[in-house]
Amino acid sequence: MPANPFVDRNIAQLANENSYCITTAHQPSLFLGPLYFVYKAISAINLADSIQQSMGPDVHIVPVFVLGSEDHDLEELNYVHLFNKTLRWEPGLNGPVGPMSTNTLQPVLEQLREVLGDGEQAQYLWKRLERAYTHHSTFAAATQAFLHDLMGRYGLVVFNMNHPDLKRHFIPIMREELLEQSSLSIVQETAQQLNQLGFKTQATPREINLFYLQDGSRERIVLGENIYKILNTTLEFSREALLAELEAHPDRFSPNVVLRPLFQEIILPNLAYIGGGGELAYWLERKAQFAHFGVHFPVLVRRNSVLWVDRDSSKRLNKLGLKAADFFDDTDAIIRLYIATNAASEVDLEQEITDMHLIFDRLAQKAAAVDPTLEKAVRADEVRQLGALEQWQGRIVRAEKQKHEVAINQIRNLKEKLFPGNGMQERFDNFIPYYLKYGEYFLDTLKENLDPLQAGLIILEEPLS
């Protein structure tokens, strides 16, 4: 990885007893994946800085980004959306993503180079990406190097836990998992309690929550009749043989999502874990499991979510008389708000509809006083008349919309830009377009404004001038 004195200092500090860390985690993702990958890292950096300021000089707080390099869900991390195109990495390999060869990245790197263009900032970023993804042999190492290159100046330590020496510290828990399957009942009971409180189960525990790793393969370990089998292979182990394998090669055993938090917390002197809402929910499902194994359970902090509004979008919002917060509503509601605010005359017939209800209420009372059977006919006529009134309101609104066709199209385009596919910007966009446009200002702005202890989504709106 690129040498960085801030990262080197923090790595050295982690060996001291008076050092602690703030962690976040994610699987290595193509070109850092969606924006929230970056937001996670900045949130961890800022929380570590905040805690450090409240500590004396003898205590050190280190931000750590854990790479889940043993993840094998390739389809979750092998693509990015850039400039109305989808770039996809197709390695043609199976098994854990982290160890996959960077040689398989050449086609998608060429696509990236084409879409980046020849601008000065584009060439600068390309050289940094190329260095990371061509000077390291594995995808995990390349991701680690690029993230260090991008955020090393903030002291972020990017940690790949797929290492035999680290796995050796996890042997006692893996042995109990193989022999006693303790996690299954503990996590199921906690999940059941959370379900009763209205929370949905995030991760279903297995009887054995470990995979077995081979070259290009990560398969579940299952227990049969006195024999342990590796699914989708011909491998079988007796109890004694599997325990011997665990002692000799702990790196061949890979925790799944149920055991991964335990592994992380055993290795790192962690104070708090920063994650998204779903992540924190499945961490909560592990609390009794942590207690069972005598492992410290960290404070859980929700990562920041961000809506980035560039200057062009700010200008359009200002011209339309709308706010970025208005766009959390659906598109039709935003258009109705705009029409109601900017119509040449009143288009809402809500008062007329209310008046008509009152008229028919009085008519129904008078009709019923003469003949009770007439009330039903009055109410039927009320439905027809109200329907006609609502049709007129629709016609008036449509006529008004035609006058504002340009503005309405701008609203639709803004909605798609701020909430692509009606989803969160941070789950669709990649950091590259923002970095090309703003350079280090983009990261520095995030660093200045993100605060994981501040609840709610943060709207960062570029000034108009």
3D structure, described in words:
The protein has 465 residues and is an alpha/beta fold. The protein folds into two domains: 1-203 and 257-305 and 424-465, Rossmann fold; 325-419, no CATH class. It is 51% helix and 14% strand. It is built from 19 helices and 14 strands. The strands form four sheets. A five-stranded parallel beta sheet has the order 5-2-1-11-12. A five-stranded antiparallel beta sheet has the order 9-8-7-6-10. Strands 3-4 form a two-stranded antiparallel sheet. The longest helix has 30 residues, at 374-403.
Compose a concise summary of this entry:
This protein is of the alpha/beta class and 465 residues long.
What key attributes describe this structure?
2 domains, five-stranded antiparallel beta sheet, about 475 residues, alpha/beta, globular
Sheet with the most strands? 5 strands, parallel
Task: For the largest sheet, list the strands in their spatial order.
Answer: 5-2-1-11-12
Briefly note the structural class of the backbone. Answer: alpha/beta
Helix content: 40-55%
What portion of residues belong to β-strands? 5-15%
Write down the Rg.
Answer: 29 Å
